[in-house]
Amino acid sequence: MEGVEEMLFKIIPILIALLVPISELRAEDPNVILIFIDDLGWKDVGCYGNEFIDTPNIDQLASDGMRFTDFYASGAVCSPTRCAVQSGQNQARIGITAHIPGHWRPFERVITPLTTMALPLDTVTVAESMKAAGYSTGYVGKWHLGQAAQFQPQHQGYDFSAVISGPHLPGRYRVINGVDQKPKDGQYRTEFEADVCIDFISQHQNKPFFLMLSPFAVHIPLGAMASKVEKYEQRAGEQKRDLPHPVYAAMVEHCDDLVGRIVEAVEVAGLTENTMIIFTSDNGGLYRRYDYQPSVDDIVATQDPLKGEKGTLYEGGVRVPLIVKYPPLVKGGTVCSEPTISHDFYPTFVELAEGSLPANQTIDGVSLLPLLKQPGTNLSRQSLYWHYPHYHHGRPASSIRERDWKLIEYLDGTGDVEVFNLAEDIGETRNLVQEKPGRAADLKKKLQRWRTDVSARMPVANPNYRPERAGEWWQMRTGKPVPSDKRKQFPPTEKSK
Questions:
Q1: Residue 103 lies in a domain
Q2: pTM score of the predicted model
Q3: What 8-state DSSP symbol labels residue 351?
Q4: How distant is the alpha carbon of residue 76 from its chain centre?
Q5: What is the domain extent for residue 348?
Q6: What is the CATH number of the domain that holds 268?
Q7: What is the pLDDT of residues 366-398, one digit of tens each?
Q8: Domain total for the chain?
Q9: pLDDT tens-digit profile of 15-64?
């Protein structure tokens, strides 16, 4: 009898384990889904104060998770931030400081530095570190870290890759590598991107996975389905307002629909308690096109009270939404005001996966797990840095934020410096450089030391400076002027001719 009891003692736990859902057995290996919207501004969704656009799914994500008030994109435009997410480094170390393929102004006061045109293959990406921790990895959407085949996600640690190219409306985008899956007739791009992700979740629900979803929305050219656009046109008329553009508002709602479908897919798979979902953006919101020509997609949105927009180092150019939902760790409805940045994702995900950071690669990010556990925690890091030595919506510049203080140093030969106290002046309306000379000198010294430490590439004086032609934009890819007044007109809805 004792032998039978001993046998039952060994067998019963095994039988119980077999009855436990797979998702509960895998609690030590949580899934990670990073939703990385393109050009979404800090003020574009409801839980961040937007009262015009309907974003119920994103707002619910914030209610179920943690909303960060002071989260920053690593770069002022897309490719730099994407580089930072994949590498865990400030992109200045690698030299991807402008969008790929980029543009420049050859007759300006300074010559801006060349940009590294692809994420180097010897970079140990976050996907490679997650794979080493036993995860399946997937990438869907916009890449923008190298156009040649050898630099695509499948060569940067992603087991599954579906890079999608083209504008948003049905029939205007396509999968350029990775899968044979095709969009349905009349399918908007974010709907198709959600379909691909949902298939990935379904196929990988029995093993821990890391999935990065990078839609092209809400990047220009503006384009959305007519039913949503008509709703916002009517609303704009009733409220007598010009911004955001009704088509842009509809695009944000399309992104909200995408978030809702991803969350639902996780729930259907029984993975809610075992999946971290992160929602954020690659840079600040757009007000108008960088070339300032009165043509296509001229005026888009405002990030008021934030100053500036995409392509600047003002808050409107780099401060973006961040929402994290992970029920085992994050209490719903919490808010965190600690300054954080995109390259923090890498160490966060690797720590969550109980993996290891690369031994021979500097990781500038710090794990956000202490903040997810206790949102009032202060990280040991004192400063955040940006380096954008290019013309775009503003002048070449670097910046530093140290707690409440922020300094912007312009790199266009003027020597201009701006200092702001963000706690008192989130709109960066009052330059305190004259009132706080000691603070300005200290921050500038730290910023300059950091640029040296990361070997940041700097502008140089332009011998071909022509003030009368300084505003001309030229393409990096072709070496020719950008024909701003001859841009192709894109239809705003599927019903447009």
A1: yes
A2: 0.93
A3: H
A4: 10
A5: 30-382
A6: 3.40.720.10
A7: 999 999 999 999 999 999 999 999 999 999 999
A8: 1
A9: 433 443 433 333 469 999 999 999 999 999 999 999 999 999 999 999 99
